[in-house]
Amino acid sequence: MKRKTDYKNAPKEIAEAIESSEIIDDFLPPPDKLVLKEPSVRITINLSMPVVKFFKENAGKSGIPY
């Protein structure tokens, strides 16, 4: 952060808290070090329509594209 940010539009308490805060070094490892990728295998399976419907509904509830 080379440029100082001005917090004039923030509520007074928040602006004061931000102004008095201390910047610390990033202590977290990079994302590729957090989760190890496992090799995947592509397969083909046949599923009944109720099973496909179940997965589609649960994907929709979880916000995961199907």
Structure at a glance:
By secondary structure, this protein is mainly alpha-helical. It has 3 helices and no strands. It has helices spanning 12-20, 31-34, 49-62.
Describe the fold and architecture.
The structure is a single chain. The protein has helices at residues 12-20, 31-34, 49-62. The chain is mostly helical. The model has no long low-confidence stretch (mean pLDDT 85).
Q: State the share of residues found in helices, binned by percent.
A: 40-55%
How much of the sequence is in beta strands?
A: under 5%
Query: Secondary-structure element sequence?
Result: HHH
Q: Helical region count?
A: 3
Estimate the mean pLDDT confidence: 85
What would you call the quaternary organization? single chain
Write the layout of secondary structure elements.
Layout: H1 12-20, H2 31-34, H3 49-62
Salient structural properties:
single chain, 66 residues, mainly alpha
